[in-house]
Each structure stands twice: as structure tokens, then as C-alpha cells.
Design brief:
6 strands; 346 residues; two-stranded antiparallel ribbon; MetI-like fold; MetI-like; OppC_N; mainly alpha
């Protein structure tokens, strides 16, 4: 009788380690927090936003001026007790020249041609530019998400009609289209059924800029929806009897939402640039309200004698847009599933 062979120990391969880092959202957030360039950009953006939000505090309690009321015959008292008129006769004897930077709390950067505090107006103008940029970005992303979802999911005639409308809007240069709509609605505003947007409201440039940029969000969303809709798990959900609302809410929307989040900082940056351009041309923010674009336009008239009036808001606009673009690129690299392959290709 043969002895049974002793049982050989089972060969155990290397144990599969669970994927660390949680879900893609958590991994992306950790990648953003570990990026020093992102942190510096976020800090710079936070400083600019906080300073603009504190505009009423600066104007009311520090400078003691009203940046929206013209004061052509006013004056200010310097720290040494000297009384200086806000508008002085020009050296050439023609016209007037506003007071330059005082380096003090009141009229820190001088006055404009109407005797208003430039520093206070820059802070108020930055607040309007930021608000319009963020709200217009939200309008563009929300409208693009809805249009892209409908076109990509429904398909057929609906997709064809919406795609042709987007193509028509896309065919116009953004600046020219925005200028045309703004010029038409500048005096009378816009009426949409029961909703009326007055010409002096900040909602008018928000609506115009947001609608102009809807195709730039709708097209990538539509492409993502078409790709997700053809996936096996969507077909499985359909075979199990899931309704259209459940499929969109549970299967499609979570897979395309990251693309909209990636586009949002870029939409805010481009909306701020477009708003400043419209305001520079006089068809954006209505006076006496200010934006960085209107202040830059005021400063161009005094560029030789008072260059800071145009340089400071222009520099703040450029810095803000650059920071938003850096954040947008970082968010794309963090949440784009192809980011790792792109980084390896570099």
C-alpha cells in the first residue's frame, strides 16, 4: 500500500493590494492640494477676491470717499495738512489734471477725471468683474450641460436641431456676437416673456456673456454623453428597466459632470475678459457703476500723466485670468481620466 503524498502547499501569488486613495474625486482633490503651483495660485486669487469684497469697508471707513459720486470741485487734506484740490489745471493750460497717487489711505492711487477715488473704484470694479465672470460662467456651464445632455441622450432630430443652432452661434466670433447683442440691448434691456432684464442691471452682461459661451460647454458635454450612452453599463441599466430620468441621473450625469467642472474656471476667465472688453467699449457695465474694463478705459485718457489708473486694473485683470487658467489646467489634469497618460507623454 503506497503512502499518500503529503499535500503540497498551495502556491500563493503576490497579494493584490487594495487601491489606495479612495475614489477619483478624492484622488483628484489630493493631487490639487499637493500641487504647490495650485496652492500659490489659489492664494493669489483669494487675496484678490477678499480685497474686492472689502471695497465698501475701504471706501467708507479707510478712504472716506464715495467712488460713485463725481466731485470736480472737491479737495483732500494730506497728512502734512496741505489742502490739495482733486482736479488741478493742466500744465498746458487746457483742461484739468486729477490728483496723482498720494500714498495715503485717502486717494491712495489718486483721483480720476471726475474727482473719484481710483483705488476705491478699482476694488468696486473688481467685485463687479468677478461677480459677472462667475455668474456668466455658471450660466454657460449650466446651459451647456442641459443642452449637451438633451442633444446627446435624445439624439435624432432633437440632436440635429440643437447641433445646428450651436453651429450657428459657434460660427460668430465671440466678441463680435457679444458686441452686437450688447449694442442692441444696451438702452432698452432684454425681455424674455415674464422676465425682463433692465439695461442698467449687472444681470444683462451676465446673461449675454453666459449665452454666448453656451456652445463652448455644450459641444464637449454632448460628445461625452454620446460616449457614455454607448457604454455597456448604460445598456445593462436599460435592460433592467431603468427609466430615462434614472439613467441620466445615476449613469450619465456623474460621468460628464467632471468635464463641466474642468471647464468652469476657464469659462470664468474668458467671461471676465469679455466683460472687460465690453465695458471698455462702453456697452458693458453702466456708469456710475465700475468694472476693471471701464476703469482701464478711463485711464487710457490719462495714460501719460496718471498711468497707474490703467495699469493697476489691467494688471489685476491679467493676474486673475492667469491664475484661473492655471487652476483650470490643474483641475483638468486632476480629474481627467487621461491625465496620467498625458503626464507620462511629457
Amino acid at each position: 500500500m503506497t503512502e499518500p503524498h503529503p499535500a503540497q502547499p498551495a502556491v500563493v501569488g503576490p497579494r493584490a493590494e487594495p487601491e489606495s486613495g479612495g475614489g477619483p474625486w478624492r484622488r483628484g482633490l489630493r493631487a490639487l492640494l499637493g500641487n504647490s503651483r495650485v496652492m500659490v495660485s489659489a492664494a493669489v486669487l483669494a487675496v484678490i477676491v477678499v480685497l474686492c469684497l472689502l471695497a465698501p469697508l475701504y471706501a467708507g471707513h479707510i478712504s472716506g470717499t464715495d467712488p460713485f459720486v463725481a466731485d470736480p470741485v472737491g479737495s483732500t487734506v494730506l497728512d502734512d495738512g496741505t489742502v490739495v484740490p482733486l482736479l488741478q489745471p493742466a500744465p498746458q493750460g487746457v483742461g484739468v489734471l486729477p490728483i496723482g497717487p498720494t500714498g495715503q489711505a485717502h486717494f491712495l492711487l489718486g483721483a480720476d477725471g471726475d474727482g473719484r477715488d481710483v483705488a476705491a473704484r478699482i476694488l468696486y470694479g473688481g467685485r463687479n468683474t468677478l461677480v459677472i465672470g462667475v455668474l456668466a460662467g455658471l450660466v454657460a456651464c449650466a446651459g451647456g450641460l442641459v443642452v449637451g445632455l438633451i442633444a446627446g441622450y435624445v439624439g435624432g432630430v432633437v440632436d440635429g436641431v440643437l447641433s445646428r443652432i450651436l453651429d450657428v452661434v459657434w460660427a460668430f466670433p465671440v466678441l463680435m456676437l457679444a458686441i452686437s447683442i450688447s449694442a442692441i440691448s444696451f438702452a432698452s434691456g432684454i425681455s424674455l416673456g415674464f422676465v425682463r432684464v433692465s439695461s442698467g442691471s449687472l444681470a444683462l452682461p451676465v446673461l449675454i456673456i453666459g449665452v454666448v459661451y453656451v456652445p463652448y460647454v455644450a459641444r464637449p458635454v454632448r460628445g461625452a454623453v454620446l460616449s457614455v450612452r454607448a457604454a455597456d453599463y448604460v445598456g445593462a441599466a436599460t435592460s433592467y428597466g431603468a427609466g430615462h430620468g434614472r439613467i441620466i441621473r445615476r449613469e450619465i450625469l456623474p460621468n460628464v459632470l467632471s468635464r463641466v467642472i474642468v471647464l468652469f474656471p476657464l469659462m470664468v476667465a474668458t467671461a471676465m475678459l469679455l466683460e472687460s472688453g465690453l465695458s471698455f467699449l462702453g456697452i458693458g457695465v453702466h456708469p456710475p457703476a465700475a468694472s476693471w474694463g471701464t476703469i482701464i478705459e478711463d485711464g487710457t485718457q490719462l495714460l501719460r500723466s496718471r498711468p497707474l489708473m490703467a495699469i493697476v486694473p489691467g494688471a489685476l485683470l491679467a493676474i486673475t485670468v492667469c491664475v484661473l487658467n492655471i487652476l483650470g489646467d490643474a483641475i483638468r489634469d486632476a480629474f481627467d481620466p487621461k491625465a496620467e497618460l498625458r503626464m507620462r507623454a511629457r
